[in-house]
Amino acid sequence: MTHLSAIIETSLPPEFPLVTRGKVRDVYTVAEDQLLLVATDRISAFDCILGTPIPGKGRLLTQISLFWFDKLRDLTPNHLITADVDEFPAPLQACRDQLEGRSMLVKRARMIDLECVARGYLAGSGWKEYRSTGGICGIPLPAGLTESAQLPEPIFTPATKAHTGHDENISFERAAEIAGPDLAGRLRDLTISLYRRAAEHARSRGIIIADTKFEFGFIGDELVLADEVLTPDSSRFWPADVYEPGRPQSSFDKQYVRDWLETLDWNKQPPAPELPEPVAVRTYEKYCEAYDRLTGSAA
Q1: Cα(37)–Cα(206) distance, rounded to whole angstroms?
Q2: 111-254 placed in CATH 3.30.470.20
Q3: HSE (CB half, 13 Å, CA atoms) of 57?
Q4: 0.90 cut: is pTM over it?
């Protein structure tokens, strides 16, 4: 990984003000109706930004999102304008070293204040909740399921967005209170449709998508898919050839980092610990393999 330099924060000309600096992405205003999303090499786990970046990670996240935006566009429109720096405004082209391969010029959307999560397997917070309540987000599930078990059908388990701190799983009824019942129903149906399409493609490439989260917004009156899509940061990707329910799975996502962090005496509150170089390198390799398998192209 030494041949890659890490971009932790971006700095653009003053005519493009920073809107927000998230856990991974820096977002800038380009025009009244346009934003620039830049995926840095920051990595977060347990909703904390870690002290060690993963050089090249932001490029991989962006390219995976672009792949899925294209593949899913017949199911839903999205906010992408272009990812070609040559088509960006001229002052941004002068920042090519920060933007090439890791940025997207997008339409500004009115974002819906929900994480739209689809789960096809029992893992993570869903597994913990199932053991406690026998269901997830108020959805009852069959008794006797084991860790990593495939669910009878994919389920919609929304969560609140947390800009700081932890996202919170909520019931569909609570989501309906936040977004309105009609929109909540649309989000549920669209989330499951997108998940089914993506899971079918990924399985053909040897990857199980255990769960993933989508974000949606409105451009005018049109509901669109936004932000990142089906990346190793927003999904659990498992190698299908070694999948075995009843235990944690190896993965192509940042679960590898979470698992390493679980071995530490850390309370999952900032400041987050540094990653040893072998863990950072292996994480990058896992992201690369996810990209290679999903897209059929070498990272």
Answers
A1: 30
A2: yes
A3: 26
A4: yes
